[in-house]
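[#protein-structures] MJ: dropping Transcriptional regulator here for a structure pass
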Amino acid sequence: MDCPLREDKDLCMTYNPKIFELITRKYTLTILLLLDKYGALRFNEIMRKIDGITQRSLSIRLKEMEESLLIKREIVNNRPIVINYSITIQGKAVKNAILMLLQLTNLISPTEKDYFA
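AK: finished. structure tokens for Transcriptional regulator:
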């Protein structure tokens, strides 16, 4: 990504747009919050805890999050085979950063009363 600044190029920061898009997608924060609270969860356990998510959406989001190292997928060799998903250190860092941004938006956003004054 090119830096739009003419003189102060040192102020520009490079970042991974793939991960940036992922952390702003629907259900990413929700999944991170669930895995941080409950620890390792199976696919159907995550499905049951999120209103409105489809199997396809959850499957896609989990795959994207695993590829981006936000979560870990672990296969337990039991009969039947169990697959658990858990949050990684990187996932916890992203979750905490998103929560801080959300708290900041709550601090600086005008109340309805102030907005219409």
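MJ: nice. The longest strand covers residues 71-76.
AK: one more thing. The chain is about 55% helix and 10% strand.
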